[in-house]
Write a structure and sequence with these properties.
This protein is of the alpha/beta class. The chain is built from 10 helices and 13 strands. It has helices at residues 51-61, 76-87, 136-141, 156-172, 189-201, 210-217, 229-240, 280-293, 298-313, 325-332, and strands spanning 20-23, 27-31, 46-49, 66-73, 91-97, 104-110, 113-120, 144-148, 175-179, 205-208, 246-250, 256-260, 263-267. It has a 9-stranded mixed beta sheet, with helices on both faces. The chain has a 4-stranded mixed beta sheet with strand order 3-2-6-7. Strand 4, helix 2 (76-87) and strand 5 form a beta-alpha-beta unit. The protein is globular, with a radius of gyration of 19 Å.
C-alpha cells in the first residue's frame, strides 16, 4: 500500500545539534588470531559490537548527544559493555538482567582480515527487551530515534520495544530513522520481509542497501551492486512509496544517494584501503544523522556519512576508527602531513 510521504522534523541550518536515541543489542566481541585458528593458549581480544551503539558512539565522537537503550546480563561482560559505551560519552539506559547473559559475537579472521562474524545471542539479555525498557522521556525529547532491523529479529519482545519506541517518537514529533540492516543469520527472508517493510513504512528516514531494498519490495535479491547511480535512484523512488520522506540508498563503491522531497542527492565514495569493513554502514548512518540534527543540507549529510564509513573501513574494529569532529575536519582537508 502506498502511503503519504513523511519527513518528521528537520531543524533549520544553524541550530544546535540535538539528541539521538538508539535502541538495540550490544554484544561482547571476541576476535580470533590473524590466521583464524584458535589453539591452546590463543589470546582473543575482547571488544564490543552492536549496530545501534556503533551509531551512538559515532555521534558522540562528533559532539552529538546520544543515548543507547538496551539490556545486558548481570555479568562481567555486561559490565564491560556498559563501561565501554559510557566511556565514549554515550548516555546508557541498560537494565541488568540476572536471568540471561550478555550476548557474544566472534569475529573470525583469515589472513588477518575479517572473514565471518558468528553470533551467540539466542536467549541473551537483549532478546528479553520489551516495551517496558523504552525510556519514553528520552525518546520524546530527542531529535531523532534511530532503530535497525536487527532488534526485531531478536524476538517478539524486542519487536514490541521497537514498535513502542516508534509510537512514542511519532506522538512526540521525534524523527524516526530506520536502517534495514537485515541479518540472514537471525531470521529468514520470508519472516523478515513483512516485518521490516512495515517498520520502514513507519519511518521518516530510511537507510537501505540494494539487497535490503529488494527485501522490502519483495523482488529478487540482486547478485551485484548497481552498475550505475540511476538504478540506485530508481530504488529510492520505489522505496519512498512506502512512506518515508527521505530514503538513503547505500551503493558501495558508487557512494550513496538520498531522495528527499522528490529531489535526488548523491555523494561519491571516499577512496580507502579497506582493513575491516564491519561497522562501515553504522558509521555512515552516524555521519548522516550528525548532519540531520544540525540542519545540514542533504548532500553534506551524505558526504559526512561517506567520510565516517571510510574512516571505519581503514581501521580494525567495528567502531574504533570513528573520528572525532577535529579528526573529521582533518580528513576533509587535503593538507600535507604536519612534520
Amino acid at each position: 500500500m502506498t502511503t503519504a510521504h513523511r519527513d518528521g522534523p528537520h531543524p533549520p541550518a544553524g541550530t544546535a545539534p540535538g539528541a539521538v536515541v538508539t535502541l538495540g543489542e550490544t554484544m561482547a566481541l571476541l576476535t580470533t588470531p590473524a590466521q583464524g585458528r584458535v589453539t591452546a593458549g590463543s589470546a582473543l581480544p575482547v571488544g564490543i559490537g552492536g549496530a545501534e551503539s556503533n551509531v551512538a558512539i559515532g555521534l558522540a565522537r562528533l559532539g552529538v548527544p546520544a543515548t543507547w537503550i538496551s539490556r545486558v546480563g548481570d555479568d562481567a561482560l555486561g559490565t564491560y559493555v556498559i563501561r565501554e559505551i559510557r566511556a565514549e560519552g554515550v548516555r546508557v539506559v541498560a537494565h541488568r538482567d540476572d536471568t540471561a547473559p550478555t550476548g557474544l559475537m566472534l569475529k573470525e579472521l583469515r589472513g588477518g582480515l575479517p572473514r565471518r562474524v558468528r553470533y551467540y545471542r539466542s536467549g541473551s539479555a537483549a532478546s528479553h527487551l520489551s516495551a517496558a525498557d523504552v525510556d519514553e522521556a528520552a525518546v520524546a525529547a530527542a531529535d531523532v530515534l534511530h532503530l535497525t532491523g536487527i532488534t526485531p529479529a531478536l524476538g517478539p519482545g524486542p519487536l514490541a520495544a521497537v514498535e513502542h519506541a516508534i509510537a512514542t517518537a511519532r506522538s512526540s514529533g521525534t524523527l524516526v530513522s530506520f536502517d534495514v540492516n537485515y541479518r540472514a543469520t537471525l531470521w529468514p527472508r520470508s519472516e523478515a520481509a513483512p516485518v521490516l517493510a512495515r517498520l520502514a513504512s513507519l519511518a521518516d528516514l530510511l537507510f537501505a542497501g540494494p539487497a535490503e531494498a529488494a527485501l522490502l519490495l519483495g523482488t529478487d535479491e540482486p547478485r551485484h551492486e548497481p552498475a550505475d547511480v540511476e538504478t540506485g535512484a530508481a530504488l529510492a523512488r520505489t522505496l519512498a512509496r512506502l512512506g518515508p520522506g527521505t530514503v538513503v540508498v547505500k551503493l558501495g563503491a558508487l557512494g550513496a544517494l538520498a531522495l528527499r522531497h522528490g529531489e535526488t542527492h548523491r555523494a561519491p565514495a571516499r577512496p580507502v584501503t579497506v582493513v575491516d569493513a564491519v561497522g562501515a554502514g553504522d558509521a555512515f548512518v552516524a555521519g548522516y544523522l550528525s548532519g540531520v540534527v544540525s540542519g545540514a543540507p542533504v548532500a553534506d549529510c551524505l558526504s559526512t556519512g561517506n567520510l565516517l564509513g571510510a574512516a571505519v573501513c581503514a581501521a580494525p574494529g567495528d567502531w574504533e576508527g570513528l573520528p572525532t569532529r577535529e579528526e573529521l575536519a582533518a580528513r576533509s582537508d587535503d593538507e600535507e602531513v604536519i612534520r
